[in-house]
Amino acid sequence: MTKPPAGMRADARRNHERLISEARTAFAEFGADASLEDVARRAGVGIGTLYRHFPNRQALLSSVFSDAVSDLLDLSRELLDDPQPCTALVTWLRAIITHASEYRGLARALMAASHDDASELARCSGPMREAGSALLARAQRAGAVRSDVSIGDLLQLTNAIALAAEETPDDPELADRLLTLTLRGLKA
């Protein structure tokens, strides 16, 4: 779980933890555009308290999603030892799509953050790019993926697939079909 900043008073720490917990619930239920006023109310604090902890929506999103990002980073490190570099890359990309689909609107927010290095979500984006770059480089060295493929393009495609799947909830296989189609275009 995301830890509050060091040196925070006990009551502020409790507020911080409740805000993240309630934001996670609200984002899962209503999507990444859930009402911040509702998040604050659910946490039993005022909107000013929410903004003291999280200056904007992206800061709150970043804190909520940091646990999942940590899991994806752990998975990427495990996959670096996979004897099939292309399979490892695909496994990781599928995990990203699954993560992005847990919260309506997350894929859109991640796509927007990829163009804004100053955004709070960029804190998640940088480590994800590094992790993906390592997996991609292995697959490229193995000759399984074209050398002109970049991790930025792959992450944008992955978020676009998650967004397309989000917009088509009556087709649960869409994300996998789109990822398979995309991967065919990546082959060396």
TrEMBL record:
Coiled coil: none annotated. Transmembrane segments: none annotated. The keyword Ribosomal protein does not apply. InterPro entries: Homeodomain-like_sf, HTH-type_TetR-like_transc_reg, HTH_TetR, Tet_transcr_reg_TetR-rel_C_sf, TetR_SbtR-like_C. Residues 35-54 bind DNA. SUPFAM superfamilies: Homeodomain-like, Tetracyclin repressor-like, C-terminal domain. Signal peptide: none annotated. Keywords: DNA-binding, Transcription, Transcription regulation. Residues 13-72 form the HTH tetR-type domain. It comes from the Bacteria. Pfam families: TetR_C_43, TetR_N. PANTHER family: HTH-TYPE TRANSCRIPTIONAL REGULATOR BETI, HTH-TYPE TRANSCRIPTIONAL REGULATOR RUTR. This is TetR/AcrR family transcriptional regulator. It comes from Streptomyces phaeochromogenes.
